[in-house]
Amino acid sequence: MDVRAAVFCELSDLTQLPALLASEPYRRGPVLWLGGGSNLLFTGDYPGLVVKVALTGITVLREDDDEVVVEAAAGENWHGFVQHTLAQGWAGLENLSLIPGTVGASPIQNIGAYGVEVKNCITEVVCADLHDDGAERLLATADCRFGYRDSVFKHEASGRLLVTAVRFRLSKRPQLHTGYGDIGKELAAMGKGDGASPRDVSEAVIRIRSAKLPDPLELGNAGSFFKNPIIDAGAAEALLARHPDLPHYPAGAGKTKLAAGWLIDRAGLKGYREGDAGVHARQALVLVNYGHASGREIWALAQKIQAAVMERYGVQLEPEPLVL
Ligand code: EPU
Questions:
Q1: Residues 256-309 pLDDT 10s
Q2: Does residue 36 have a pLDDT over 90?
Q3: Which positions are annotated as active-site residues?
């Protein structure tokens, strides 16, 4: 179902920022900074100002025989940027192909897929300080406090630092990550088992994602609706004793990450549908809107899934998109 913002504008030039920050709708609030919108669930109209960050531009800052540092503006489409870097022969982002959304959202979420997180390639995040007339602030990677689908931008910096551009260090001597899931198998099927290039890895990722994950332009969805839960290793062991085939990964000292998709799937909810709100038939972690489900209906389905997984496995699932 469509939702509306009380006031909407686009920020396409940083020189407009001070005027925007001084404007009546901004001062009145609330304010939502929008990238591609692919990781949001609106449960109703937005009562304040929505600003679409439409800053564009890709600039090479440094380059030598081994690597390049490239800056991309926040409003650049993520996948378009990844394809651009690969076309230039720069490696590093190939496993993150076809992720919906914008460059500016990538550090906020620390987007990740197929064994790679974007933090691995980020050198600095360029921000505007909204509490200081939009003055530029440069955050080094350590200041971003990246975690699993997490960063400082979801915490202390939220509402204060607007990501305006991201700087990436990319390599001209690629080290491919093909160990995760089906990538090796897909490369072999493409006849690229040996000597695959970063573009081949990108193609493999595109094929796997297209087969499993619905295209948000065709079937409304926000990607994985829940994060993979990270629980105490002891609790995980007890769970694994009862469910030895539950996919799990080490997640730092004394912690284990579980596959939420498996938990939802085995709770019998894969393909489950209530009206136009449903659990995707090929990936249980993705909730889809078959047409006219409202954000509230999607949210009701999400809560039902949380309750079912809690009852069956004693594990709390946390939503991954921002629910408004
Ligand atoms: N699984 C099932 N049934 C399902 C779904 C998954 O049994 O319906 C099992 C799979 O067989 C596999 C395990 O669960 O053993 C993990 O599944 P998958 O490799 O598909 O990845 P995921 O953990 O479900 C995460 C990310 C995705 C990312 C993939 C690939 C999160 C929340 N999601 O999903 O990211 O594309 O890994 O790296 O971490 C997103 O964040 O929006 C997103 C799509």
A1: 999 999 999 999 999 999 999 999 999 999 999 999 999 999 999 999 999 999
A2: no
A3: 149, 224, 320
Compute the distance from residue 113 Cα to the ligand 1 centre, in Å.
9
Q: Which residue has the higher pLDDT, 264 or 38?
A: 264
Domain boundary (171, 206, 232) is at: 171
For the CA of 226, the closest atom of ligand 1 is 32
Confidence at residue 193, expressed as pLDDT on a 0 to 100 scale: 82
The alpha carbon of 11 and the centre of ligand 1 are apart by a number of angstroms equal to 34
Domain of residue 269, CATH code: 3.90.78.10
Whether the link from the prior residue into 30 is cis, omega within 30° of 0, is: yes
In-domain check, residue 210? no
Please state whether the peptide bond connecting residue 47 to the residue before it is cis, i.e. omega within 30 degrees of 0.
Answer: no
Coil, helix or strand for 11?
strand
Q: What is the pLDDT of residue 175?
A: 92
Q: Please enumerate in sequence order all residues whose Cβ is within 8 A of that of 16, keeping only pairs 6 or more positions apart, or say none.
A: none
Output the CA 160–ligand 1 centroid distance in Å: 32
Q: Which two tokens stand for residue 191?
A: 């006849």
Residue range(s) defining the domain that contains residue 292: 220-323
Residue 77 CB contacts under 8 Å (≥ 6 apart), including other chains: 36, 102, 103
Q: Rounded to the nearest 5°, which phi and psi values hold at 217?
A: -75, -20
| Strand (E) or helix (H) holding 307 | helix 295-313
Residues with CB under 6 A from ligand 1: 113-114, 181, 213, 223-224, 227-228, 247, 259, 261-262, 265, 270, 283-285, 320
DSSP state of 228: P
Report if residue 192 sits inside a domain.
no
Q: What are φ and ψ of residue 87, in 5° steps?
A: -65, -30
Amino acid type, 307: A
Q: What is the pTM of this model?
A: 0.94
